[in-house]
Structures are given as structure tokens and as C-alpha cells.
Amino acid sequence: MSRVVSIQFGYAGKLYDFTCGGMELHPGDQVVVETDKGKGIGAVVREPREVPTGELPEGMKQILRGATEEDLQSAARNKVREKDARAYCLKKIIERNLEMKLIRVEYLFDGSKAIFFFTADGRIDFRDLVKDLAYAFHTRIEMRQVGVRDEAKMVGGIGICGRELCCSSFLREFEPVSVKMAKEQNLALNPTKISGQCGRLLCCLGYEYETYSILKKSLPKCGRYIQCGDVCGEVVKQNVITGTVTVRTEEHREVVIKSQEILPEHIIEKPKKPAPKEPVEPPSSGRPSRDNRPQQKPPQRRNERKGGSGRGPKEKS
After folding, report:
1. Which of 66, 148, 209, 307, CA to CA, is 20 to 30 A from 257?
2. Is 295 inside any structural domain?
């Protein structure tokens, strides 16, 4: 058996597992670990747990040591260097007229590399910018382009609900969100109402989607007809929270019925409307109708003659 502990880098960051051997660790302890990017300092999130050695992922690294006072001071100095590097980089971006937005600068624990996070609409030629930064700070420079969701997570802010953004407070990983989730919860499909600060769909749309999907299965869909007691009509509205449906009867009355009162046999087919009666023709009076009367020739005029119209000029005698 091996003891494994979860570490996070930064607030509400993604969790990474490391082996801790016989170290006594508790949530909140600062430790120094070896990552793919180099040494880093992180915080313990969970208590160490026992995992069979054969189930450990290949290449899992071990915690180097607990963070000392000198390590914490070094991390604090890196924070100051990050502010200076960000201000200098913003100045150079303006001078070179680059269409990019700098989000954050992050120094590795040992100061061997500085990572500059930015957003842009397309590809950016930042080779000259990297030369300026490397000359100014004498360290390796990495430019990393991120999406708008990652930008919101790094910057933070207040959502339309009045609370701190989920991604910057507790949400460690982004889950896919679709418009179907908003439709299932009967939300208005207004982009300003269902979009977050990043311009994408709200992450919280997925929190209650599964619950709404389960509760809706116990309710008849809108447009179905039910016969429950003396009420017969079409379902025009669903209320998932209260577990009721609104039925509109043929008398245009709206009745609210609970889902417990509706059984499968109460759902019926749409009642057919009676066919309209054909108009009955009145009995004929013996006289032919106007359309069936024989057509008469129009009477000839008196001055009309055979072979001519009779309207020509008179011949002189």
C-alpha cells in the first residue's frame, strides 16, 4: 500500500495526486513538489489515503518536503516579481501594437521560468516580445494562450447571481454545458440571462439539470391529453418544483393536478372532433334554377339586315 495525497496549486485549482510516504500531512499544509514544469509549492487539500501500489498511475511523483519559512518567503518574492513582469509586458504589448490581452504572469517556485497567460482572437507573432522579456528578466519565457473561461477563472469577479464566480471560488474543472440544459429547466433563452461573465453558457446550468430530467419523467408532457376524474383536457404547463401540471379543459378552464393523482391509464389520445355536417339542399320547386335555364338568343335590332349591320352610309340616288 502507498499513501497518496491531493495537492492544489492556486486557489480552486485542479487537484494533482502525489505520494507522500510516511509524512504526516493535513489539509492546508504547504509542501514542495516536483512537477513537469519544475519545482512548485502547493497546498494539501485532503488527508492522505491508502492506495494499492499496483493501482498507482505510472510516473506518479513524490512530495519532496514540507515547505519551510524560507520557501514561503521565496514564494512571496515571486509574487512581487510577477507584478513587475506583468507591468513591463503590458508596456511592450502596447509599444509593439499586438492584438492580445495579458491575463496573468506566473513564476515557477525556483524562478527558472516565467509563464505569461494571454487571450487573443487568433494567432499572434510574439517572437519579438519574447526577446524583450527574456532580455529584461534573464529567465526562460513561455507564452500560453488560454480561452475565455480560463480568463474568467484567473481574473475572478461577481456573477449575475451576486456571488463570486463558481470557477474562481470552488469549481476546479469545467464541464460541458448546452442550451438543452436551459430548455429542460424552462429558462428563458435570452443570451444575457443564461450567459456568464466569460460570454459562455452559465456553468450552473448543469447543477440541477439531472434533477429536472428525473422529475420531469413523472409528469405528462405538454400537449398530451389526460382524463383524471371529471377533468379532461390538454396539459399546457408543467411545474417541476411543485410536481403539478396545468390542464386546460374544453370549457377553457385551467385545473392544476398533482403528479401523484395521474396514473398511466389517465393519459389518453387526443379526442377527435365530430365531422361537420354536410349542408342539406332545399327541395326543388319544379322551376329550373337560374344556372340550368335554357339560354335565349338576344333579340336582333330592327335595323340589322342579313349580311350587314345596317349602319353604313346611305347611297345617293
Report:
1. 209
2. no
